[in-house]
């Protein structure tokens, strides 16, 4: 577990394994708004398990890093999922940066993004990539504000819902 202090607030980032699915489930259960938008249904245990275990083609468990963000009382308040060198060497993809609704809009997401960025730079990344649902206007604005640029739109289906996903990239090195 890694601890951080930001604006007099302590939080911890704990790397997750399949044994830690309960932490992922707790965040997912508090983020039903996202899952309803993405797949048209509330979050399930399978969603939480998938965040921990699903891998892009050609990647291994060693390439994927899933972390729970815990507050001062060890309450799970967010999830981070990053895959190194995907889809190409030097580009790391942020598969997920999810905060429970009470934490959104507080500036905390920017803090976590900076942690991810610094960590990716230390790991040899030269750019970061993310896919954002077009209808998730707040997230599109968040990533754009941080300097991410849309490079393409892709069609994807999650659950019963079809989406346009904005593929966004930021050069960091």
TrEMBL record:
<keyword id="KW-0808">Transferase</keyword>
<protein>
    <submittedName>
        <fullName>GNAT family acetyltransferase</fullName>
    </submittedName>
</protein>
<dbReference type="Pfam" id="PF00583">
    <property type="entry name" value="Acetyltransf_1"/>
</dbReference>
<dbReference type="InterPro" id="IPR016181">
    <property type="entry name" value="Acyl_CoA_acyltransferase"/>
</dbReference>
<dbReference type="GO" id="GO:0016747">
    <property type="term" value="F:acyltransferase activity, transferring groups other than amino-acyl groups"/>
</dbReference>
<dbReference type="InterPro" id="IPR000182">
    <property type="entry name" value="GNAT_dom"/>
</dbReference>
<feature type="domain" description="N-acetyltransferase">
    <location>
        <begin position="11"/>
        <end position="173"/>
    </location>
</feature>
